């Protein structure tokens, strides 16, 4: 199917809007209205409807398998990506003198979860970056015989840098170090191979075009001993009253209770839509537009912090400025949706964006004299 997709496929994506804010959150699909109706019909149907909630969850996990390369049953549908991160971090048996590694520019949920381990005598090694650039070699260089876990985003939210997860995962695999990858700015817009990491997490409300839920993919072949500390009735096989529990063999062990079933129904429609267009085709389209943004920002002498090398870029392109909130607010009034924070302006491209969207954004920068 040709890209860009029709704007009418999305709720509220009017012709006058240039939506370059998917890295913050995307518009919802028109098909989500049908998903809500299906959920509501099942919600009122008693036990049979409740069982259908879980059947939809199983179907969503099968769809996720097509995106991550891991079996469907090795995915858990949780409250948020941050929730998934804490499930992984809490599953390891920590000892004083252990250490963990994260870049100082990486996402706060990963950094905070690892820094919290200091209370257990675990050293959080927060690796400094070269300007705005995360050097994977520095992350690797910070590891030693006591390193237990490395956290990294496949695509960083701050700059849009795309990390070579296959390379990093291969370097860590033989050392017994857990690689925890946050794919929130990758899943749904570029290929994600969760087989290269031990655990991969993602939010649902960004490039997956769904709502505020989380996904956890567990690579059982690479790290078979996942035992979450936070568990509940949904994590284990039923046991006699007062009897010992037995965790599910698959990623259901990360489900303390119900998934957010309505979010799962919505995600099902999003995944069907994205898979119908093909992630490779979406990636080629989004990356071509992102390159157009990147070239346009550099031509205007802005401080572009997204790497220049095409292999290190995905769908986010960012420039640094102390006027980020002012610029994003003004762009919004002009019908151009961007994202601010941390002293930078971020534009994100996806399957509904066009070259006309990019050119309107760049033209607006000229009209408003936003330049270096």
Descriptive report:
The chain is of the alpha/beta class. The protein folds into two domains: 7-26 and 278-367, Aspartate Aminotransferase, domain 1 (Alpha-Beta Complex), CATH 3.90.1150; 32-275, Aspartate Aminotransferase, domain 2. The chain has ten helices and 15 strands. The protein has a seven-stranded mixed β-sheet with strand order 2-8-7-6-5-3-4, with helices on both faces. A four-stranded antiparallel β-sheet has the order 11-12-15-14. Strand 5 (147-153), helix 6 and strand 6 form a beta-alpha-beta unit. Helix 1 (32-43) runs antiparallel to helix 2 and helix 1 packs antiparallel against helix 7 (261-277).
Summarize, please.
This protein has ten helices and 15 strands. 34% of the residues lie in helices and 16% in strands.
What is the topological layout?
Layout: E1 18-19, H1 32-43, H2 46-68, E2 75-78, H3 81-89, E3 99-103, H4 108-115, E4 123-127, H5 136-141, E5 147-153, H6 165-173, E6 178-182, E7 199-203, E8 214-218, E9 236-237, E10 246-247, H7 261-277, H8 279-299, E11 303-304, E12 316-320, H9 324-333, E13 336-337, E14 339-341, E15 344-348, H10 355-367
Parallel strand pairs: 1-13, 3-4, 3-5, 5-6, 6-7
Antiparallel strand pairs: 2-8, 7-8, 9-10, 11-12, 12-15, 14-15
Helix pairs in contact: 1-2, 1-7, 2-7, 3-4, 8-10
Shape designation: globular
CATH architecture of the largest domain: 3-Layer(aba) Sandwich
Number of helices: 10
Whole-number mean pLDDT:
96
Number of strands: 15
What is the strand content? 15-25%
Helix-strand topology string: EHHEHEHEHEHEEEEEHHEEHEEEH
CATH topology of the largest domain: Aspartate Aminotransferase, domain 2
Portion of residues within helices: 25-40%
Strand order of the largest sheet: 2-8-7-6-5-3-4
């Amino acid at each position: 199917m040709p890209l860009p997709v029709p704007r009418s496929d999305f709720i509220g994506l009017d012709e006058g809007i240039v939506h370059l804010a998917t890295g913050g959150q995307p518009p919802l699909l028109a098909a989500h209205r049908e998903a809500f109706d299906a959920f509501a019909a099942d919600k009122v149907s008693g036990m049979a409807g409740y069982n259908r909630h879980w059947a939809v969850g199983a179907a969503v996990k099968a769809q996720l398998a097509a995106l991550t390369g891991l079996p469907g049953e090795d995915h858990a549908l949780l409250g948020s990506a941050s929730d998934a991160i804490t499930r992984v971090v809490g599953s390891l048996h920590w000892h004083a003198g252990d250490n963990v590694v994260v870049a100082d520019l990486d996402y706060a949920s990963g950094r905070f979860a690892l820094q919290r381990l200091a209370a257990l005598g675990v050293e959080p090694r927060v690796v400094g970056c070269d300007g705005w650039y995360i050097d994977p070699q520095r992350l690797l260089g910070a590891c030693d015989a006591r390193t237990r876990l490395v956290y990294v985003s496949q695509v960083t939210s701050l700059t849009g840098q795309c990390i070579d997860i296959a390379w990093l995962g291969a370097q860590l695999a033989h050392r017994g170090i857990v690689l925890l990858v946050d794919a929130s700015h990758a899943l749904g817009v570029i290929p994600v191979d969760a087989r290269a990491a031990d655990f991969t997490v993602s939010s649902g409300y960004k490039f997956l075009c769904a709502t505020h839920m989380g996904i956890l993919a567990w690579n059982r072949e690479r790290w078979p001993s996942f035992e979450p500390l936070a568990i509940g009735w949904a994590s284990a096989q039923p046991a006699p009253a007062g009897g010992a529990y037995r965790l599910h063999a698959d990623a259901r062990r990360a489900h303390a209770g119900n998934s957010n079933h309505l979010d799962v129904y919505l995600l099902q429609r999003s995944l069907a839509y994205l898979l119908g267009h093909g992630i490779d085709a979406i990636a080629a389209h989004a990356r071509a537009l992102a390159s157009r943004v990147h070239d346009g920002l550099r031509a205007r002498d802005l401080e572009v912090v997204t790497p220049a090398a095409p292999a290190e870029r995905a769908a986010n392109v960012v420039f640094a400025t102390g006027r980020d909130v002012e610029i994003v607010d003004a762009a919004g009034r002009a019908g151009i949706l961007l994202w601010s924070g941390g002293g930078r302006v971020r534009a994100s491209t996806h399957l509904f964006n066009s070259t006309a969207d990019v050119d309107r954004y760049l033209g607006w920068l000229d009209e408003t004299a936003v330049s270096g």
